[in-house]
Structures are given as C-alpha cells and as structure tokens.
Design goal:
CATH architecture of the largest domain: 3-Layer(aba) Sandwich
GO molecular function: ATP binding; DNA binding
Organism: Anaerotignum lactatifermentans
Structural class: alpha/beta
Distance between the termini: 73 Å
Number of strands: 14
Largest sheet: 5 strands, antiparallel
Helix content: 40-55%
CATH superfamily of the largest domain: P-loop containing nucleotide triphosphate hydrolases
Strand order of the largest sheet: 2-1-5-4-3
Number of helices: 19
Keywords: ATP-binding, DNA-binding, Nucleotide-binding, Transcription, Transcription regulation
Number of domains: 4
CATH class of the largest domain: Alpha Beta
Shape: globular
Protein name: Transcriptional regulatory protein TyrR
Radius of gyration: 28 Å
C-alpha cells in the first residue's frame, strides 16, 4: 500500500467525495466521487491552493481554510460553480500539535437527513487514520528517566501482551492516559481503535448512550437509525474509562456485565451483542474507600483490579523533571517558532517546587514561562512563576549567574515584600519588620504591583 496509486484506488471506492490538502491549503488528492458529486475535474484542482480555486470561481468558499484557522472540525454548505449545493465536513489531521493535512468529506445536500451518521462515520475514519499516522512515526510518547516511572512502563509493557483488565491509579496529571495509550500501542490491538471516555465529564444520561449505544426511537430525541456506543465502535481495540470512580452505580452494573460476559445491550434493546474490546480504567480516587462507603461496587472493583498500575506523583520522581522540561521546551519552541531556553537558576526553581498538579501543571507552567518572557535565556523573575521562590533560594541561585544587579535586587525585593504582605496586616507592621518607612512600603508595594488591602 506504499504506492500512492494504491491509495488513489482506495479513495475511489468511497461513495463520499474526499478532498485532501496539506497544511497550507495545497490540493493533494481528489477522489472520483468528489468529481461526480460536484461536477469538477480533478485536473483543475490538484496542485492548486484553495485560495486560488475560490478566486477562480470553482468554489464559493473554502472549508479547508476554516479548518486551518480554527484547528477544529468544520461543517458547512458550499455552492459549486454549476450552482449545485453540497454539504461538507472538514477535519484536521495532526502531527503532534501541528496540522499535517486537512481531509474534507462531501455529500449531495439531498441526503442531509443522514448527515449525522455520515459525520460519525467520517470521524471514525479520521480516528483510524490519525492512529495509523501516530504509529508510523514510531516515536516514544513518554519521558521516563526515573527508576520509578521506568518500573511503571515496564509493567505496562508486560500487561500489553495479554488482555487482562488494567486499573491505573494516581493523582490528577500524573500521566494515566499516557500509560493507557502505551499499553494499547504495544498490544496486538494497536491496529484498531483506542477510544477514551471521561466518566466524570459527561452527564449520567448521556454517558450510558455513549458507552452502550441505543436503538432508534428508544427515547425522546433518539436518532431514527439508533447510535453505536464506544464499546461496539472499539471492537478489537481498547476502551479507556478515565475517572471510573465517577461512574454512577447503575452503570457500574452494566459495565460488570461487559467484563464478565463480553457482551453489551443497547438502550431500548434486549439483544446481546458480543464484543472483543479491552478495557483499561483509571482514577485519582480511593476505590477501596468508595467500596466501604458503598459508592462503588465491590464486585466491579475486583473485576477492574486484575492488574493495578500505580503512578507516583512528580514530586516523588524528580529526576523526570529535567527531561520533561527539555521535552516541553522543545515542543513549545517548535510550535511557536521560538528559540528560548531556561537558565540553571530557573531549572533549580522548577526542581524545588512540589508540583501538586504533576506533569500537566509542569507543561502549562513551561508554556507560560516561554510565551510571556522576552529573553531567550529565562531567569527567575518577579511574577514569572505562579509561586514565589524563597529568599534563600533566590540568593543562592543568583550567586551562580551574572545578571544586572538592579534586576537581581528587584527580584529579591519583590519576593521579600510579597512574603511580608502575606504575614503582616498593615503597612506599618511591614515597615517595622523591614526597617524602612511606611511611605516607602506603600510606594514599593505599588511599584511591584502587589495587591494590598489594609
């Protein structure tokens, strides 16, 4: 299938029109169905930018440009040169965080009564394509320097070779989804779908239909043709149930049946549908306590907890922080076309922090530091970090580096004033503690933009 001509033959088997461009809007591929639906000739489109095609009047507007601008799926109606109207669904294909290409699906507007099912089918195809693209890149999608996290990934690779149910435990932001995806990618199921659902982020009534699907007309507002749940959709693949501790009790009963009998029943149906889907669950809650409190079923807990993987928080594996920082800095530099780095003093500030939000917080802080700092080599500055390094830490750090004395003084002054503002109730108390006048305290608080309410 490496031969591009083979891909052209595959595209031509679709009844939907398919239009593919690169990230700049240059037309790469148009299938036969697109030509038949729109009446446009592929020779007039391939090799041209979408802006040029619109200017020449072949299309009234470009869905590709909207997808590139928003980096999100877009649905529009479009008028062709011959006056015909079509419905379009455009999807971005990502390489990490950057758009690699845009794939658009087109259908005659006369079949709009089926557009929702077509859209779901299109997303299904895009998901498969995205996962195959990620697999082809064969890049390790995790950073593991500490022995603690290496042990976690070693266990993940062992259980990847079998179909045992896995329960991943750890604080929020420790990388539970990363571990789940690694298990899937290293398993024999890696050519099928990996689908994630957050059990705590979806309303209870919608969660059941998303997991198990429903028959047409089974409740008010149900689609005429019904809906396929993710357990069916991920057949031969993996379903990742994040925040499993938030699943309602009545759905826990249905999940238990899936684990025991390997079958599901759609809402509104008594028919059992066999499935071959691996289940990986994760939570940051204490399920044993929830079992004792009768908010989580004991039998389900034992079914899920065949193999448990416990992710240590970032504060307990600090040797992972430097390579994680390097990874995030490289990604952000590439994403925003920058060339910034962190000074040794900034690295030490980051190493000294406890990271209650774990890896997710670290990633967000690194992006904040890089995009808000003007220097290419970033040192600790007042207000740059959401916390204040200790005075002792600042004195120790600045001794190792050459920076303007005024800048070092300002940083130190800001930290001392902010610490004092938290400790004392009035500017007079701060002045007495710092052995300066009260007007000087007021002036310096204003200079450093430290909020103060006496």
């Amino acid at each position: 299938m490496q031969d591009p001509k083979n891909w052209e033959k595959v595209f031509d088997t679709f009844t939907d029109g398919i239009y593919i461009t690169n990230a700049d809007g240059l037309t790469l591929q148009v299938n036969r169905a697109y030509e038949e639906i729109t009446g446009l000739n592929a020779e007039n489109l391939i090799g041209k930018y979408m802006t040029q095609i619109v200017q020449e009047g072949y299309l009234s507007t470009s869905i590709t440009q909207k997808v590139i601008e928003t980096k999100k799926p877009v649905s529009i109606e479009q008028e062709i040169k011959n006056g015909k109207k079509v419905a379009l669904n455009g999807f971005p294909i990502f390489d990490q965080d950057e758009i690699l290409m845009v794939v658009s699906f087109v259908r005659d507007v006369t079949v709009l009564n089926k557009i929702e099912e077509d859209l779901k089918h299109s997303r299904f195809l895009i998901d498969q394509y995205q996962q195959r693209l990620n697999k082809m890149q064969k890049t390790q999608n995790y950073v593991a320097e500490s022995q603690e996290f290496k042990n976690v990934m070693s266990l993940a690779h062992k259980v990847a070779n079998v179909d045992s149910t896995v329960l991943i435990l750890g604080e929020s932001g420790t990388g539970k989804e990363v571990v789940a995806r690694e298990i899937h990618e290293q398993s024999h199921r890696n050519n099928s779908l990996f689908l994630k659902i957050n059990c705590g982020a979806i309303p209870e009534n919608l969660l059941e239909s998303e997991l198990f699907g429903y028959e047409g007309g089974s409740f008010t507002g149900a689609k005429k043709n019904g809906h396929i749940g993710i357990f069916e959709m991920a057949n031969k693949g993996t379903v990742f149930l994040d925040e499993i501790g938030d699943m309602p009790l009545h759905l826990q009963v249905k999940l238990l049946r899936v684990l025991q009998e390997k079958t599901i029943s759609r809402i509104g149906s008594t028919k059992s549908i066999p499935i071959d889907t691996r289940i990986i669950a994760a939570t940051n809650r204490n399920l044993e306590e929830m079992v004792q409190d009768k908010t989580f079923r004991q039998d389900l807990y034992y079914r899920l907890n065949v193999v448990s993987i416990i992710l240590p928080p970032l504060r307990e594996r600090k040797t992972d922080i430097p390579p994680l920082i390097e990874h995030f800095v490289n990604n952000i530099n590439e994403k925003y076309r920058m060339n910034k780095k962190l000074s040794p003093s900034m690295l030490k500030c980051l190493m000294d922090y406890d990271w209650p939000g774990n890896v997710r917080e670290l990633e967000n802080i690194i992006e904040r530091i890089l995009v808000t700092s003007e220097e290419n080599e970033i040192i600790p500055k007042a207000g740059l970090l959401p916390w204040n390094p200790s005075v002792a830490s600042i004195l120790e750090l600045e001794a190792d580096e050459i920076i303007p004395l005024k800048e070092a003084y300002d940083n130190l002054e800001h930290t001392i004033l902010q610490n004092a503002a938290k400790k004392y109730k009035t500017t007079y108390e701060i002045a007495e503690a710092l052995q300066i006048s009260q007007p000087s305290v007021s002036r310096k608080l204003k200079k450093h933009k430290i909020k103060w309410n006496e």
